[in-house]
Amino acid sequence: MPKARIAIPASAPRKKAQRGAGRRERRRTEIRERLFRAALRLFAERGYLETTVEDITEAADVGKGTFFNYFPTKEHVLATFGAERIATIESALDEAKKGPVLPALRRMAVDLAGMWAESPELLRAIYAAHASCPPVRAELHKRLIHGRRLIAEIFTLAQERGEVRRDFAPAELARLTQLILFGVTLAWAMNPDSSLRATEGQVWGLFASTLFADEKSKASKLPRSSKL
Q1: pLDDT in tens, 112-136
Q2: CB-CB contact of 159 with 132 (8 Å)
Q3: Whose CA, among 68, 89, 105, 178, lies 20 to 30 Å from 146?
């Protein structure tokens, strides 16, 4: 029996064409989305290293040269995937600037995997690519540092408002948050025995309960910031 094709959802930020966009621009957006989804599906089915650009363009039903009009290299497909994760953190930061921080952080934790939370095969393939391919690992490191700085900004706001404990530097809280969420996602991808979103929500609930500020922690002196 042939192996069932892995379903890859449409990427929400690119799924809807901008209003007023010309036909040519809409066409470019459509082709880019097809290439992106085809690449991720093949990564999930075959593995990142085993997937070629020719495989991607064939699956997307476009010419081989078309790929390079949208992605300079295969690594840039994963960079786009990572950019979507950064966008989720940026959204949480915007939300935190307008209201309570902890609800914004919880939504970030639950939504960080995005539309891909139902595809353990894809997440496993991406983790394997990070582990085995130095260029991909270098790109991941850059995005982890960027994401950590954004999360640290969120925790800085929370500490200034007295919403979270002050005995840890914001950068350290951001680092621990990344480690927890990264670990939860990896563990789920290895054994997806429940909903990833639900699991992340439960784990975040446990972690968040240790973040609440009390009178003693509010008055404590902030430690020296750790390096990002």
Answers
A1: 877 777 889 999 999 999 888 998 8
A2: no
A3: 68
pTM: 0.81
164 - beta bridge partners?
A: 212
Q: Which residue has the tokens 């008055």?
A: 219
Distances (CA, A) of 53 to 36, 40, 78, 141: 11, 12, 13, 24
**DSSP symbols for 63-112:** -GGGGGGT-SSTHHHHHHHHHHHHHHHHHHHHHHHHS-HHHHHHHHHHHT
pLDDT band at 5 (very low <50, low <70, confident <90, very high): low
Q: Which residues contact 58 (CB under 8 A, 6 or more apart)?
A: none
Instruction: Please write the tens of the pLDDT for every residue from 182-204.
Output: 999 999 999 998 899 999 999 99
| Structural contact between residues 150 and 88, judged by C-beta atoms closer than 8 angstroms | no
Distance CA 81, CA 76 (A): 9
Which one-letter amino acid corresponds to residue 195? S
Burial class (CB in 10 A: 0-12, 13-18, 19+), 179: exposed
φ and ψ at residue 194, rounded to 5 degrees: -160, 180
Domains and CATH numbers, the chain: 17-69 (1.10.10.60), 75-219 (1.10.357.10)
Angle at 120 between CA 37 and CA 118, to 5 degrees: 70
Q: What SS3 class is residue 43?
A: helix
**Torsion angle of C-alpha atoms 56, 62, 67, 70, degrees rounded to 10:** -120
Phi, psi dihedrals of residue 212, rounded to the nearest 5°:
-60, 140
